[in-house]
User: Fold these one by one.
Assistant:
Number 1:
Amino acid sequence: MPAPPLPRFSIRAIELFERPVVLRLPFRFGMVTLERAPQAFVRAHIRLADGAEAWGASAEMMVPKWFEKDPARSNAADIEALRMALRAARSAYLGGAV
């Protein structure tokens, strides 16, 4: 049986937000013990080929050492790299230069 056709849509807008989060208990993974970190939120507005529109959202913690495993880099530098990745992805999805 052939697969159903994929939905066709265009991305109309992408909004980025963040909020500080303090964990109730420290969480250790790898070289990091996480006690606090910003949480990133992304909202996307799409338009389907038939003209219908919708908003969607997602959220994720911006955890130091997620991209860069370099112990010499500060947590602030790691979190800023995650912010830059979000901005670059938004620009790419909206058709801008990265």
Number 2:
Amino acid sequence: MRQHPPELLDPARSGRLEIRACQCPFCTRHGSRAAADPNGRLTISVKDRAKLQTYRFGLRTADYLVCRECGVYVAAIAGDGAEARAIVIVNALDDREQFSREPIPVRYDAETREQRLARRRSACMPVEIQGI
């Protein structure tokens, strides 16, 4: 899998993006540092569908993408088609050094399903997945 978030990788913008560290067990175990730019766009290229693992947690509001080959948590995607919105895990990016600031710890476990969907619609970025 390869991620191409060109607007996120613009050095002038990446320094202003908020990096978040979800405190749930899944994200903590993966050392997750996530970013999203509602005005940007994320493109994920999947070369081999068999190497892509998707997982949904209890509220079933997003697909979490994990590489089956190396175990890296890549992104989380909520919604489908033109409505799909995502966060990118900056540790999975080739240019992750542009995102070196300390992440802000966040907790989302008190959110209802509706609150979580609303947050993702407003705070996450449009996404396109190529190759699936």
Number 3:
Amino acid sequence: MKIFVKNGCPFNSIMGSAKTQASAKTQEQLAIAPFIGMNILYNTTGEEKDFQLWNFTDDGKIYGWTFLEATQLVFAFCSRGPPFDPFNKTCPFNETFDASSYDSYNSIGYNKDSMYRPHWLMNEYGYEYPTASNIVFSNGDADLWLDGGWRNINTNIGSIYSLIVKDGTHGYDIREANPLDTQSVKDVRNQEKQHIRNWIHQAKFATNLSEETK
């Protein structure tokens, strides 16, 4: 079965993947459905014959992120287990259990007692950023990384904005426009553009005012 999208990732990968699950009627079709979902995300040209799970061309892309998660970029993720998802139940999140899942790095000198630092980001940079300005953080409410973001609701503090795309996955708002895009992602894109226009206008105005007062 060939499943691919000619012009990059589909407009709504959640809907694309969900359709394969919803339309499956046999055990065989249910088993194949996740593979079709992976093709939607990782085989957009339809040219890949198989997926290399461990033989990466760019090792740093995968192992680099995982090593960060094992040291100082710790995300409090866990799985609820069946029947909610196909993974073993690991909720509630437990730091001791999470650290033990990186034992495969022991061969390169990893020591979880000294290198696993789940609070490093907060200790190093703090929780508040009073001097930050002109930033838009956007996430889909179905984005795996949402809980690691600045805020998980639509809000702002000064010129720092958090925008949430309803039924959106990771990076949905920065993909190319599609006629079948949801209204939510269209609204978020318009807000992002409007904020950037305002910041550019304010910067130009401040520059011109400065020139006039010289």
Number 4:
Amino acid sequence: RKLMRMFGAKVVLTPKEAKGMGMYQKAVELATENGWFLASQFETKANADIHASTTAQEILGDFNGHNLDYFVTGYGTGGTVTGVGRELRKARPNTKIILTEPDNAALIASGIEQERTSDGAPALSHSAFQPHLIQGWTPDFIPLVLQETIDQKLFDENIPISGPEGIEWSIQLAQKEGIFTGISGGASFGVAIKVAQAAEGGSVILAMLPDTGERYLSTMLFESIETEMDEEELSLMRSTPGFQLVDEP
């Protein structure tokens, strides 16, 4: 919230029990009442189109002349998997597209259709949704943008992952690889590891890490990260004579 407000945004909160539908409907109300532009990122075709013309082309360019056996991604609006999926199906039909979603909010895996209004917007929360830890992934409805991926079978397999796994992989990436990603990035990477464990040797796997850990300082991602020195750090401080902190009397 502080980061968004730093950029000048107004942050309007909605009741937690209203879930994503509450945020969505509040945005519609505010836009209607004030004559504001509503991005409609969950419905607009431009969402997937821009990923088809940018993200997908970057991937195809980077792997020009090289194998790409698997592409792994989660979904929020569904723009990435739909746009990239379209292009990979045409240019790289042998690349397997692996979709992932929270194990306790497996909307796609449930096979239950999303109820919609006449314009394609969600009419109500999806019955398979449960609150999960992977922020940015899987709202409590199946976005219209994502429906194309489902209808056109733009993915080959759906592998779920838990929120705690996503958090653990985010921490591992930061501490071992210097890659500071958010919970959703950690979750995508965790699924890529599962794919790698089952794939043939030498397989090439691309995992989508779309966020940065700096956005998650106030979330459970940092719950285990202390600000004060632990015993090991205190011992290091005391191991040389100079510049030691002195406890206040």
